Amino acid sequence: MSRTNRLLINDVDRCVDEMLEGIVLENPAQRILEGHRVVIREDVSSFCSSGHVSIISGGGSGHEPFAAGFVGKGMLTAAVAGSVFASPPPHDILAAIESVASPDGVLLIVANYTGDRLNFGIALERARNRGHKIDMIVVGEDCALESKDKTAGRRGLVGIVNVMKVAGALSESGKSLEEIVKITKVVSSSMGTIGVSLSGCSIPGIGSSFQLDQSEMELGLGAHGEAGVKRMKILSADDTVTVMIDHITNESNASRLNLVRGDRVFVTLNNLGGMSALEMHVLSRKTILLLESRGILVERFQSGYLMTSLDMAGFNMNIMKVDDDIISLLDADTSAPGWPRMSFSPSTGSNRRNSLVIHSLQPGTMNNPVKPSNKSGKGEMPENSVFLAGLQQACKALIANEALLNELDTSAGDGDCGSTFKRGASDVLSKLQSWKHLDIQSILMKIASSAESSMGGASGGLYSLFLTAASRHATGTDVVSCKSCLDAGMQAISRYGGAEPGDRTMLDALLAASNSLQNSVRREESLREAAVNVAKVVAEAAEATKNMKAKAGRASYVASNLLTQPDAGATAVVIWLDAINKFINSA
Fold first, then answer.
1. What's the rounded Cα separation, in Å, for the pair 221 and 468?
2. Which of 52, 63, 132, 224 is catalytic?
């Protein structure tokens, strides 16, 4: 959905200039060429006079970090910016050439769009007329083009950034203009890119670049949102990656990239601006696994913002064939702020194919083995059977109330409380049978571990603390033992979580349960009687939280007038304690 009227800019006409000023303020090794939308290296004078070819690129703004984010040692000497999605004018390009012109030559790297080719071409011809040694390569690696009919050619997409990296590394190593042109042309012809989008982008002062139905995605669009190959129903991440790689390598596709088993590749996933990091990493996973399952060796992989389309929700996939020489150029050092850095392994370098996991024993398993039941026969103590059966009912109740808890959590949190408890409860249910020979203390520790791993977040941590502390006091299923466990768990939550009774949290419900159990101990009530009373007072305590001011957790950041429902965490306590009560009194 377009954010056209909700963009954090000051002025539509000045946003490009202010953007360039921001980039240079962020990066001390860059400067703006006065009077022009040109960013250059701070050390340009010494660089150009020491036997290096100057590398220049650029294009319309809105694609950042392209191109200004790649100005620096080992990449661009200068970058020229046009207005949003508009080619820079020839006079700015010529100004960039004259400012960074080297006796060893200047190379212009241009994306294959008509406006860019024309304006950079005009500037090149004028520079030659002034005696500059200069050349230009045009990068067009888009694989969306299926027809062999005459067109404007393959569009230039994120692959141009990789060509810039190779050219910059060659320049730093002292290669001649002719050598750089030759190698970068080979690199440009050895790659393919395809894009997919879930939305248009918000162009300042104009509106959304195009519209997509909420259920649609578009394959093969251009850098500015130009029409792609086709629109289709939104697919899963894995299926999307499969469709893209199949299209890039499709033998019937006129612009395909020929890949065969044993090919070595450098893969780039380029966030077009509006994708979350979570989505990008999920896509990265499938991309690497699928290529390598087909015998393609993924020598290097990068993911991030390289050539965006403002805030478009989508991404490009670029696959580039490489050999040892090209890999060394891609690995060469650069100070360009926009180039991603890879985490290299000290033992295997860039090789990920040895193992994804480290196998180790869980802490404590050697010194604190899980204790089995001390009964003979099958090893099931009556208390264990009662405890596990009650636990099963509590888990089922939490799962059944997923929607209710999510709804209660919507105004105070992120609306996932019920889903979180469902994950935890489902995990416990899947393991109950394997716990039937354990004592209650060990079972509580197992539940704590399950909560920690399956629920995650604050809820998983709090319940893990609660159950770990409670387990030390689990001597049985009598009222006194239940109260001791409850109190120990509450103290742990308060100590480490920072909440106290009265803060509108699960502690308010747990405190009511503890006070009720204290009264049951004093009156010497049975477990059945105590359970009935606990269920009643806990429900009342949870209901009372809707009138409380939140002082802990995410809800504490929400205005009080928006908190009109009972606390979700306290309600969850009601649900599992009520389920246990019903089980005990139906047995």
1. 53
2. 224
